[in-house]
Amino acid sequence: MPMLVAARLIQGLVSGPMMSVAQAILLRNYPIERRGMAIALWAMVIIIAPIFGPILGGWITDNLSWPWLFYINLPVWNTLECEPRRSGCASNTPGSQALRSRAPAACTSSCPAR
């Protein structure tokens, strides 16, 4: 039990500033005229995710099985991990070659050989 309490304390300390840091990153990276839209989209996700996350998770668990809660993340990983590297394939920038060399084989399969 003490380990659970300590882990929860660490989780709270680390995740506490996450909201303000996310807003600061958004406000810093968007131009002034688009900041309102960026914050609105961010807030929409913050409001909708706790509503639909448990509903979708419960539906997946009831209709498929609990391992599918983890399998569902594979396409998300593929998109987030591989797409930026695939888009670097068409680029002739100096960093694109280094990016392709670090990419997993599954990510570089669509890259033409140079």
Key phrases:
single chain; 114 residues; mainly alpha; 2 domains; 7 helices; 76% helix; extended
How helix-rich are the residues, as a percent range? Answer: over 70%
Strand content: under 5%
Number of domains: 2
- Rg (CA only): 20 Å
Low-confidence stretches: none
Strand segment tally: 0
The general outline is extended
Give the helix tally: 7
N-to-C CA distance: 57 Å
Output mean pLDDT. Answer: 79
Question: What is the succession of H and E elements?
Answer: HHHHHHH
Structural class: mainly alpha
Major beta sheet, specifics?
none
Describe this structure in words.
This protein has 114 residues and is mainly alpha-helical. The protein folds into two domains: 49 residues, no CATH class; 36 residues, no CATH class. The chain has seven helices and no strands.
Briefly, what is this?
It is built from seven helices and no strands. The protein has 114 residues and is mainly alpha-helical.
Would you spell out the secondary-structure blueprint of this structure?
Blueprint: H1 2-15, H2 18-29, H3 35-63, H4 68-71, H5 73-87, H6 94-102, H7 105-108
